[in-house]
Design brief:
One of its GO terms (cellular component) is succinate-CoA ligase complex. This is Succinyl-CoA synthetase-like protein. Keywords: ATP-binding, Ligase, Nucleotide-binding, Tricarboxylic acid cycle. One of its GO terms (molecular function) is succinate-CoA ligase (ADP-forming) activity. InterPro entries: ATP-grasp_succ-CoA_synth-type, ATP_grasp_subdomain_1, Succ-CoA_synthase_bsu_CS, SUCC_ACL_C, Succinyl-CoA_synth-like. By secondary structure, this protein is an alpha+beta fold. It folds into two domains: 124 residues, 2-Layer Sandwich (D-amino Acid Aminotransferase, Chain A, domain 1), CATH 3.30.470.20; 127 residues, Succinyl-CoA synthetase domains (Rossmann fold, 3-Layer(aba) Sandwich). Helix content is 31%, strand content 25%. The chain is built from eight helices and 13 strands. The strands form four sheets. Strands 3, 4, 5, 6, 7 and 8 form a six-stranded antiparallel β-sheet that branches. The protein is elongated and about 80 Å long. The two termini are 49 Å apart.
Length: 289
């Protein structure tokens, strides 16, 4: 597999180049379980999910998932453990091991700002051992500042290289399939900007939010990222100056253009809000061709 492209339902259409392999000894399996901790958005509560049918195609077996809601402040309670045992029918010998796994999962989920912890499959071997054969760990990107140690271990895949670069500069970037790049401050305005582009027959190349407290540096990084993207044939910079000053944004656009030797595409700039008149003057007189 090394050096070859792997194509699955979870990869881009062209697959991903395999650069590393994780090899573990084979285990005899008596039974497979699915165990996960995630959020239930409808109930506004974290939930423990357990199924006696682990392995592939778990999504198609959603009706077999047992759900156990819990409070992050109270953690794993005796009542929750009683409910787990009664529904999954773990033996007296198995239950202390399962209890330890659940305790550690919930502790990790809370302390590391996770949005999903998944053991699939968690297998029971013929000699009574529980072994996790595969796992998934999704972190809340909004907690990046609290989990810098974990994020420092991140190895971006080729299909997420742009998103990874953007996150390093405090930007929220999502690659889309159009040719109009846009730079916006605030997620709501960014979504509205993408909707307007689509409404008028265009297609966005990206969702790029530089944040409500954008600085000259974050804007420069955003503009340079789009200027390097060969798919982008035009750029729309749409900024509302509430906290951020429009004249600072305008000067940052000018500085970025100068540093790059000019923009290689048409650029449309809309600046509204604090110091927008001054910003318009800076853009009109100073943007390089």
């Amino acid at each position: 597999m090394l050096g070859h492209y792997l194509t699955t339902k979870q990869t881009p259409p062209n697959g991903l180049l395999v650069k590393k392999l994780y090899i573990y000894k084979a285990e005899d399996v008596a039974h497979e379980y699915y165990v996960a901790v995630t959020f239930d958005r409808q109930k506004s509560s974290p939930v423990l999910l357990i199924s006696g049918e682990g392995g592939v195609n778990v999504e198609s077996k959603a009706d077999q998932l047992h759900r156990f809601w819990f409070s992050p402040s109270r953690g794993v309670t005796p009542d929750l453990l009683v409910a787990v045992r009664s529904r999954l029918l773990f033996s007296t010998a198995e239950m202390p091991i399962i209890e330890g796994i659940i305790q550690q999962l919930v502790k990790l989920f809370v302390e590391k700002d996770a949005i999903l912890l998944e053991l699939n499959p968690l297998v029971l071997t013929p000699d009574g051992r529980f072994v996790c054969l595969d796992a998934k760990f999704d972190l809340d990107d909004a907690a990046r500042f609290r989990q810098q140690g974990l994020y420092s271990l991140e190895e971006p895949t080729p299909d997420l290289a742009e998103e990874y670069e953007a996150s390093r500069h405090g930007l929220v970037y999502i690659r889309l399939d159009g040719n109009i790049g846009n730079v916006v401050n605030g997620a709501g305005l960014a979504m509205a900007t993408n909707d307007l582009i689509n409404l008028h027959g265009g297609k966005s190349a990206n969702f790029l939010d530089i944040g409500g407290k954008a600085t000259g540096e974050t804007l420069r990084q955003a503009v340079e990222m789009l200027n390097r993207d060969p798919r982008v044939q035009g750029m729309w910079i749409n900024i509302f100056g509430g906290i951020v000053r429009c004249d600072m944004i305008a000067q940052s656009i000018v500085d970025a253009g100068s540093a790059m030797g000019g923009f290689r595409m048409p650029v449309v700039v809309r600046l509204q809000g604090t110091n927008s008149d001054e910003a318009q003057q800076i853009v009109c007189h100073c943007v390089p061709p």
